[in-house]
Amino acid sequence: MMPQPLFAAPPPQANTAEVAWVPQPGGTGRVIVVWLESAIPVTVSAGLTLALGDVVSLTRIGQTYRVDSIVTKAITTPTEPPATEEPEPPAPTD
Predict the structure, then answer these.
(1) Which pTM was predicted?
(2) Which of 23, 65, 75, 91 reaches 20 to 30 Å from 46, CA-CA?
(3) What are 30-56's pLDDT values in tens digits?
(4) 55-61 and 38-44 as β-strands: parallel, antiparallel, unpaired?
């Protein structure tokens, strides 16, 4: 009986994944791979800083994958709206 590969090979056009866990600097982490819908072990190329929700490009290396580049940065929502104008002073009371 042939041993089954740990991960199925992706379709040729599907070599991107969405980051669902941010690796620690210099370490390994996991990303959610859209075509597998499961977590896989990855390493991150030097100089890349990942954030949750980033879409990244992957290269398969044996049973793991390497994040080569960020395809799309995650959209982040500001915690507070920017202050664009001065607040109006309260009306004087007589």
Answers:
(1) 0.52
(2) 75
(3) 665 555 556 667 788 888 888 878 888
(4) unpaired
CA distance linking residue 77 with residue 44, whole number of Å: 25
Q: What is the dihedral of CA 27, 38, 35, 26, to 10 degrees?
A: 0
Return the structure tokens found at 29: 């982490």
What's the distance, Cα to Cα, between the start and end of the chain in Å? 92
Within 13 A of 9's CA, how many CA atoms are on the CB side?
A: 6
pLDDT of residue 45: 81
Interval 69-83 mean pLDDT: 68
Given a contact cutoff of 8 angstroms between Cβ atoms, the answer to whether 28 and 42 are in contact is yes
Give me 60's structure tokens: 């398969």
Of 51, 32, 52, 48, nearest in space to 40 by CA: 32
Q: What Å distances lie between residue 90 and 10, 58, 84, 87, CA to CA?
A: 62, 56, 18, 9
